[in-house]
Specification:
- The chain folds into two domains: about 5-170, no CATH class; about 175-330, Rossmann fold (3-Layer(aba) Sandwich).
- The relative contact order is 0.10.
- It has helices spanning about 5-15, 60-70, 90, 115-130, 180-195, 205-210, 225-230, 245-255, 270-280, 290, 305-320; strands spanning about 20-30, 40-45, 50, 75-80, 105-110, 135-140, 145-150, 160, 165-170, 175-180, 195-200, 215-220, 235-240, 265, 295.
- With about 325 residues, the protein is of the alpha/beta class.
- A hairpin with a 4-residue loop joins β2 and β3 (about 50).
- Strands 12-11-10-13-14-15 form a six-stranded parallel sheet, sandwiched between helices.
Length: about 325
């Protein structure tokens, strides 16, 4: 899940609490090219105000216009966008065509401001802010929804049977950056744009004194302390260190391997990485298995030279691992 999803559910819960009816939309499936992946969400009110997205804009425009015309009054429905067979003769409108030529199906839930709906969104918000994934099920018959624990963290984001949609939800993707550097700054900018919750840990006042980056939370403590605190690194967390300062980088790695973080990486040449591996094994007390969890050198081998190029290689590798793609499959 993206950090934006947290804001979407927060907004939906706030609107319900204020007595508003909302439409909670989830991308169920995509065919061909499509701007958003299955599981992407959007929330809207009857006056057209909304947060989140389902596509590059064309789907949202059509959906919001139809909501304001009084459509989608049923508790639950599934709408198919981008298909040439989409009912233009009946509804006197042209079918929405995605610019990329893809097709997507959207689950649309109309939620009134009753206690059960508010409670469900509050529970969903807790999952997004929490530590573990759950499965959100929605009946395609009556719209009843529930959240269930999952035994395995892998699997399809969305699966649909004849009458049930099952959506895997979990902690919003988080990037913990150990220490500030030119590469770290650019990496943070990329991560914010990609929808990550970004936390920068920097204890050196001379480094963070003039630091400000929209969407980035600054923690003025040693990264190793932050990483070691319970709940700060969950299954959707990536931890990266890019300062060349062993007090920052090495200590961060030593704590990160004890967490559930899905990606752990530290910047340095092959020679520097070999020396760091020796230190972490001998004086850091890491096992060979823990050391294998660390990506060093960090990032994809793109021949990167500038801070922006290195940051791009780092974020590309994080995304690769998060999507479960092997390096040799690129």
């Amino acid at each position: 899940m993206q950090h934006l999803d947290v804001q979407v559910v927060e907004r939906g819960l706030a609107w319900l609490s204020a007595g508003e009816t909302i439409w909670f939309c989830t991308v169920l499936s995509t065919f061909g090219s499509s701007p958003r992946a299955p599981g992407s969400i959007m929330v809207a009110r009857g006056d057209g105000r909304h947060l989140g997205s389902l596509s590059g804009g064309c789907v949202e425009e059509d959906f919001l216009a139809r909501v304001q015309r009084g459509e989608f009054s049923q508790r639950v429905s599934v709408e198919r966008y981008g298909d040439q067979r989409d009912r233009p003769a009946v509804e006197h409108r042209l079918p929405v065509q995605l610019p990329c030529g893809g097709i997507l199906e959207v689950l649309i839930e109309r939620l009134t401001p009753e206690h059960g709906n508010r409670q469900h969104l509050a529970e969903l918000l807790a999952v997004l802010r929490g530590q573990r994934q759950k499965i959100r099920t929605v009946s395609l018959v009556d719209g009843c929804s529930s959240l269930f624990p999952v035994a395995h963290t892998d699997g399809d984001t969305v699966s649909v049977t004849a009458d049930i949609a099952s959506i895997r939800v979990g902690p919003a993707s988080r990037l913990v950056i150990a220490g500030l550097s030119s590469v770290a700054r650019t990496c943070a900018e990329f991560a914010v744009a990609l929808g990550y919750e970004v936390i920068l840990c920097e204890p050196r006042e001379e480094e963070y004194r003039d630091f400000h980056l929209a969407g980035v939370r600054l923690e003025k403590i040693f990264p190793s302390r932050f990483i070691a605190e319970a709940g700060n690194c969950h299954q959707q967390t990536a931890v990266v260190a890019m300062t060349h300062d062993p007090r920052i980088d090495d200590l961060a790695m030593m704590e990160a391997v004890k967490t559930d973080a899905f990606y752990i990486g530290v910047m340095g040449s092959r020679r520097t990485s070999d020396k760091r591996a020796t230190r972490l094994l001998s004086t850091g007390g890491l096992t060979a298995e823990e050391l294998d969890r660390i990506h060093m050198p960090i990032g994809l081998a793109l021949g990167s030279k500038t801070p922006a190029e290195i940051a791009l290689a780092v974020m590309a590798d994080i995304l690769r691992v998060q999507r479960g793609i092997r390096r040799d499959a690129l």
